[in-house]
Amino acid sequence: MTGKAIVGLIVGSFRTHGNTEGIASWVQYYVKSLYPDITLKVYTPVSPINLMSEPIDPVVPMKISSPEQYVNPIVRSWAKAVQECNAYVILTPEYNHSYSGHLKVMFDHIYNEFRGKPGTLLTFSGHGAEKSYEELTNLTLKFGVKITGGMHFSIPMEYVVSNKRIVPNFDPNTSQDSFLKKLTPSLVSELEKTLDSL
Ligand SMILES: Cc1cc2nc3c(=O)[nH]c(=O)nc-3n(C[C@H](O)[C@H](O)[C@H](O)COP(=O)(O)O)c2cc1C
């Protein structure tokens, strides 16, 4: 491709004192270190575009063919952000056997902007996150994402039931979250399936 490829890391949770921020920092670390020429943009449901308080556009998103056509300027900027990406890494914790409701809102605001682009799906929980992976697969296929990689994985239960959380700003040299080290070869292999061809 001509120009720098843009990858959108779409993150389904912004829970205070949650684990997703730490997992997202682990993903960011490997995307940035393996693909220094890629521009990685991270989107949570509230940052840098806060989608949580916005109503769904009066025009049905499915009928919209260009981001300019969205009435709501916040939705318009979200649609532009998704459209400019050449690929996605979509990350969510499992909530009640599915992806987070916040992630669903990020999708519901728009429609055609994801279509035809490759994506890696990542879901996690204390119990393998298989069900949320299935649900996320169904959702992203509806939006036309070409699923080129993905994995669902467990975090140790102590990170779910105690006060312990995955530390943000992952650094392999200092990380105390040793289970991430074991998962890293799988993460790298799944990222490669999507990002090598950009
Ligand atoms: C509202 C809620 C629902 C959850 N539902 C499930 C579930 O269905 N299955 C599961 O294995 N874990 C479930 N968990 C555990 C989460 O996957 C785990 O706590 C994870 O760290 C959540 O990510 P977060 O901390 O970034 O929000 C749930 C947690 C929350 C807060």
From TrEMBL:
Gene Ontology CC: one annotated term: cytosol
Organism the protein comes from: Dekkera bruxellensis
The organism's taxonomic lineage, starting at the top: Eukaryota, Fungi, Dikarya, Ascomycota, Saccharomycotina
A Pfam family of this chain: FMN_red
Domain NADPH-dependent FMN reductase-like span(s) in chain numbering: 7-155
InterPro entries: Flavoprotein-like_sf (IPR029039), FMN_Rdtase-like_dom (IPR005025), NAD(P)H-dep_reductase (IPR050712)
A GO term for molecular function: oxidoreductase activity
Top-level taxon of origin: Eukaryota
The protein's name in its UniProt record: DEBR0S8_02036g1_1
SUPFAM superfamilies: Flavoproteins
